[in-house]
């Protein structure tokens, strides 16, 4: 058992493998979420239900409700017990079980319950998976790795609708769920293979164990990394150990495996109330929370009514709806890795602001009910730019965690997941009601979305980053004016 558990330690504990597993988890989560989006309206119609958009909205609401309700408990538990792998495995079991329940549900309320459990499973990969990436990744590469992991989101959304529509049309209602279960099983294997950095010594390679030495005043201590932008950053922060050599004390980087930000007795420094209070006081955390809420709401609003809209305007069947969504989502595979890489070099607020602003005109194109090609182009570019913001705001949250004592990565990604869940809980209800009860429902939905985008862009500009982007801009202009005045006086 020990040999099996320690096999491949170097690659199974590397940040690239961890990122790959989380990427697969995100992909599977979004695949399972979206694979039934083009299927639900047609299935409910076959079952004899009316007000299809509203019922679809409630099913998406149930998923997001489970996601939002479970987030707080998962985030606190992940930081308290300092184990990432077990909740990841539990989340996968929830995901598989919910698929089986939904597939076999004989009544509508049981379908809703299955979606709630699916939301709970999703929380694990979003909160714990993102935290694990930050635990093991060098700080100057966190944005890049988060961007790569987030690309699984768009690939899952890319594969889900066409696969769901085609499999439903060809093989029936159970087919999309069986495909989702297969993906989840492969994802489960990847999660089992992960070895966390703080694995027990018997599972680690044969190297000298990290140790502490006494300082000159006789107190036993560790030399913690003082610059959070260098070396791997983890909630259990890597520390500098000191070894004796012939030339004196030499520092070597060894991850010291113990909970970070804890008091002398090993308990967390902040209580649950303390964590919430610290995050509420953080301008940057509040900014990301609002943007996450808007991101979740917009994604859910579109997902809720797009199948019905395409069917109403262009008379598309479920498989053709899936193909339209496939063509539109392909470009979004590339945006999170690109913006994640750029955020490590140029900061998060400008990239977030640019992604939101550039998506607005293309979102306006969705209003046009002319050639289908115009709709697809607008949908593709709107998705490309808007999906790119998820990597910068995730990187911003990692920076927030490093800047507040007692706040771990799971706490801040709990914020992201909770407000995304709240947005995606409210979004389907708003979309379903607006589309069913407003004469120009689709137009009203698109205008609402544009208003939310403008608000989010302003928040990114004014409140993200240690020095908000607007102050950076005015500071640069002021320095330029001062330099020009100085040269003129000379």
TrEMBL record:
Record's subcellular location: Membrane
Lipid bilayer topology: Multi-pass membrane protein
Gene Ontology cellular-component annotations: membrane
Molecular function as annotated in GO: transmembrane transporter activity
InterPro entries given in the database record: MFS, MFS_dom, MFS_trans_sf, MFS_Vesicular_Transporter
Keyword 4Fe-4S: no
Ranges annotated as spanning the membrane: 15-36, 56-77, 89-110, 116-134, 146-163, 175-194, 287-310, 322-343, 350-368, 374-394, 406-430, 442-464
Keywords (A to Z) from UniProt: Membrane, Transmembrane, Transmembrane helix, Transport
Coiled coil: none
Annotated region described as Disordered, given as residue ranges: 205-254
Domain Major facilitator superfamily (MFS) profile: residue ranges: 18-468
UniProt biased composition (Polar residues): 205-215
Any matching Pfam family: MFS_1
Designated name of the protein: MFS general substrate transporter
Species assigned in the record: Cylindrobasidium torrendii FP15055 ss-10
């Amino acid at each position: 058992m020990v040999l099996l558990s320690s096999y491949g330690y170097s690659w199974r504990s590397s940040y690239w493998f961890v990122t790959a597993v989380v990427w697969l988890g995100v992909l599977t989560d979004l695949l399972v979420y979206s694979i039934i989006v083009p299927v639900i309206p047609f299935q409910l119609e076959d079952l004899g239900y009316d007000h299809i958009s509203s019922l679809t909205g409630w099913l998406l609401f149930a998923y997001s409700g489970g996601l939002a309700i479970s987030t707080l408990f998962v985030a606190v538990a992940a930081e308290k017990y300092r184990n990432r792998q077990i909740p990841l495995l539990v989340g996968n079991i929830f995901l598989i079980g919910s698929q089986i329940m939904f597939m076999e549900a004989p009544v509508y309320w049981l379908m809703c319950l299955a979606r709630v459990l699916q939301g709970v499973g999703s929380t694990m990969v979003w909160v714990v998976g993102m935290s694990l990436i930050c635990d093991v990744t060098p700080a100057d590469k966190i944005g890049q790795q988060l961007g790569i992991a987030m690309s699984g989101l768009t690939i899952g959304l890319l594969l889900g609708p066409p696969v769901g529509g085609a499999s439903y049309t060809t093989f029936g209602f159970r087919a999309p769920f069986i495909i989702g279960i297969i993906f989840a099983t492969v994802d489960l294997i990847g999660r089992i293979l992960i070895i966390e950095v703080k694995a027990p010594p018997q599972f680690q390679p044969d190297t000298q164990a990290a140790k502490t030495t006494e300082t000159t005043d006789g107190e036993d201590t560790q030399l913690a990394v003082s610059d959070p932008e260098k070396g791997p950053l983890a909630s259990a922060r890597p520390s500098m150990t000191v070894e004796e050599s012939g030339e004196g004390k030499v520092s070597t980087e060894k991850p010291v495996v113990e909970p970070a930000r804890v008091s002398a007795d090993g308990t967390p420094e902040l209580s649950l109330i303390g964590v919430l209070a610290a995050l509420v006081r953080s301008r940057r955390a509040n900014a990301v929370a609002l943007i996450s809420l808007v991101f979740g709401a917009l994604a859910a609003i579109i997902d809720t009514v797009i199948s019905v809209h395409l069917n109403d305007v262009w008379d598309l069947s479920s498989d053709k709806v899936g193909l339209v969504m496939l063509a539109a989502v392909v470009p979004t595979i590339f945006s999170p890795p690109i913006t994640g890489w750029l955020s490590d070099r140029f900061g998060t607020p400008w990239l977030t602001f640019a992604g939101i602003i550039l998506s607005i005109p293309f979102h306006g194109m969705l209003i046009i009910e002319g050639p289908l090609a115009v709709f697809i182009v607008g949908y593709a570019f709107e998705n490309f730019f808007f999906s790119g913001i998820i990597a910068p705001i995730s990187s911003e949250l990692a920076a927030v965690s490093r800047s507040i004592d007692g706040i771990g990565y799971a706490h801040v990604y709990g914020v992201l997941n909770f407000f995304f869940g709240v947005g995606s809980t409210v979004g389907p209800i708003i979309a379903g009601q607006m589309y069913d009860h407003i004469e120009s429902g689709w137009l009203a939905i698109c205008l609402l979305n544009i208003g939310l985008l403008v608000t989010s862009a302003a928040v990114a500009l004014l409140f993200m980053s240690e020095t908000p982007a607007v102050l950076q801009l005015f500071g640069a202009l002021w320095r330029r004016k001062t330099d020009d005045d100085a040269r003129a006086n000379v």
